[in-house]
From TrEMBL, chain A:
Belongs to the TFB5 family. The keyword Acetylation does not apply. The keyword Hydrolase does not apply. Keywords: DNA damage, DNA repair, Nucleus, Transcription, Transcription regulation. In NER, TFIIH acts by opening DNA around the lesion to allow the excision of the damaged oligonucleotide and its replacement by a new DNA fragment. In transcription, TFIIH has an essential role in transcription initiation. When the pre-initiation complex (PIC) has been established, TFIIH is required for promoter opening and promoter escape. This is General transcription and DNA repair factor IIH subunit TFB5.
TrEMBL record, chain B:
GO terms for biological process: DNA repair. Keywords: DNA damage, DNA repair, Nucleus, Transcription, Transcription regulation. Component of the general transcription and DNA repair factor IIH (TFIIH) core complex which is involved in general and transcription-coupled nucleotide excision repair (NER) of damaged DNA. NCBIfam families: tfb2. Residues 381-448 form the Transcription factor Tfb2 C-terminal domain. It is found in: Nucleus. InterPro entries: Tfb2_C, TFIIH_p52/Tfb2. The keyword Ion transport does not apply. The lineage of its organism: Eukaryota, Viridiplantae, Streptophyta, Embryophyta, Tracheophyta. This is RNA polymerase II transcription factor B subunit 2.
Length: 70, 451
């Protein structure tokens, strides 16, 4: 019997993929969201995590920038 | 990525969207006929002129003989346009043969127009009455000033000095899709609003006119009257004075609103009052594509991401604030910097890198405008890079299928998804495939049929 799973197909560059993998690993086992790691730049994750990943990436990006005070 | 764009279609699309009876009413005026004729694509223009003295309907087949086969598509476009604007009317005879006939009113008006030329329903007021009229440069300055004032009020800027006299309900209609106001919160510009501000004046004007016309009915005014008046207005002579007494009531009220927008300037004489159309009005019926603004630019961008804007306009300052960090403001100069944070702020608001770059290019100061490129390449590249940096991760809702009982079945499914262009990924060895989410119902159906 063919099995179908709903989810998100993520494609990105290798560093970003590593960031997501790391994010996944930092969560408790019940909240991990990566269903399949397809190859270094593609993965299949649970459908509800899109916003969470985006905001984490945003946070990460903000940590790396510095705005000079007015 | 923002998908919504403020559509700036031209005037004629709006005219074409009117119901047939209204459109026929519009053709009572020779000016509208002329404006419509002018707006047609070249081939359609030729057809209209060719049919001008043809009284009997012409069959479609006969018309198709005019064109070579390879240009059939162009012919189709021209005919569609003519039918849409009801310049041509479709007729069917007893044998179900379709033929075209020219709209009688249109035909009559154009024939008359050819013979006596057009004359406006009103003559300019003689100089002896009006005295000295504003010079064209003054008039232009007035128009732009008025327009800017309106825009500032539109975006609820705190910098408005003199408000326009638009009622707040009217202002609300204009702001409808540009500002979002949640209860108890100050209204914020929406994505549309930001894109609107970056558009050139003519597109903005057209957008506002469209809102103005489409809200006419709420004010108890027939949109057709407004359209015909606006088209008529675009045939008036720039900078000449026309008496207000020649206008109907509807037109007089409209004129007052248009004066607020800077389309016309109202002046009061000893007994008479008159209006003077500005170039904003006379450009109105011109199609948007060929109205490239000849306004002088004001922005200089340096390779070190600093930006100098030689402008006294508060609106310019507001616009620049959308995507840059304004550092200081002198009476005629705004100095800012394009920083990663300021650009990200713009992206958050739904402005795209291309819009920012094209704004900088279009408004380049004359000193740098002749240079190629007008905006340093490292700056434009960096803005684009920052944008792509935001989109490093691509997520697509999808369905994963696994546990296929046989290789053939798996291959068939792969091929099926691939043929429809929905296959995202496949792993032949482990027999897994991923297709786009929207293809799932179709895929399920396919799997069921296979069984």
């Amino acid at each position: 019997m063919v099995n179908a799973i709903k989810g998100l197909f993520i494609s990105c560059d290798i560093p970003m993929a590593q960031f997501i993998v790391n994010l996944n690993a930092s969560l408790p086992a019940s909240e991990r969201f990566i269903v399949h790691m397809l190859d270094p730049t593609h993965m299949f994750v649970q459908p509800h995590v899109a916003e969470m990943i985006r905001s984490k990436i945003g946070e990460f990006r903000d940590q790396n920038s510095y705005e000079k005070p007015q | 990525m923002p998908q919504v764009m403020v559509v700036a279609r031209n005037f004629m699309d709006m005219v074409a969207a009117l119901p047939a009876s209204k459109l026929d009413m519009l053709y009572d005026s020779a000016f509208i006929c002329e404006a419509v004729l002018r707006s047609l694509p070249p081939l359609a223009k030729k057809y209209a002129l060719q049919m001008l003295y043809m009284l009997a309907p012409l069959t479609v087949a006969a018309m198709e003989e005019w064109v070579l086969d390879e240009y059939a598509a162009k012919h189709r476009v021209a005919i569609d346009k003519l039918l849409q604007l009801r310049v041509f009317v479709e007729m069917r005879d007893r044998r179900k043969e379709v033929s075209y006939k020219m709209n009688q009113k249109f035909q009559g008006n154009m024939q008359k127009y050819l013979i006596d030329g057009g004359s406006l329903p009103r003559e300019p007021v003689p100089l002896s009455v009006t005295g000295r009229l504003p010079a064209s440069a003054d008039l232009e300055a007035y128009a732009l000033d008025q327009w800017e004032c309106f825009l500032l009020q539109l975006i609820n800027s705190s910098q408005v000095e003199k408000g326009t006299s638009f009622s707040s309900s009217m202002m609300k209609t204009f702001q409808r899709s540009l500002l979002s106001s949640r209860d108890g919160e100050a209204p914020k510009l929406t994505e549309n609003g930001f894109q609107f501000l970056l558009m050139e004046t003519n597109s903005q004007l057209w957008y506002i006119m469209r809102e103005y016309i489409s809200s006419a009915e709420e004010r108890g005014v027939d949109p057709t009257d407004l359209i015909s008046f606006l088209l008529e207005l675009s045939f008036h002579k720039l900078g000449a004075a026309y008496s207000l007494n020649t206008l109907t009531d509807v037109q007089r009220i409209a004129t007052r609103d248009l004066a607020e927008l800077g389309l016309v300037k109202l002046q009061q004489g000893r007994k008479d009052s008159w209006f003077i159309p500005t170039q904003l009005a006379t450009n109105l019926s011109a199609s948007l594509s060929d109205s490239s603004s000849s306004k002088e630019g004001f922005v200089v961008v340096e390779t070190n991401f600093r930006m100098y804007a030689y402008s006294t306009s508060k609106l310019h300052c507001e616009i620049l604030r959308l995507f840059s960090r304004v550092e200081y403001q002198l009476p005629n100069l705004i100095v800012g910097a394009i920083t990663k944070e300021s650009i990200y702020g713009a992206f958050e608001n739904g402005i795209t890198a291309e819009q920012i770059i094209s704004f900088l290019k279009q408004n380049a100061h004359p000193r740098v405008a002749d240079k190629i490129p007008a905006v340093p390449e490292n700056v434009t590249d960096q803005i684009r890079l920052w944008e792509t940096d935001r989109n490093r991760v691509d997520m697509i809702p999808s369905q994963l299928y696994e546990d296929f009982p046989s290789k053939e079945w798996f291959e068939q499914c792969c091929d099926h998804a691939r043929d429809h262009g929905y296959l995202l990924w496949e792993d032949t060895r482990r027999m897994k495939l991923i297709v786009r989410g929207e293809f799932h119902p179709e895929m399920r159906e396919f799997l069921r049929r296979q069984r």
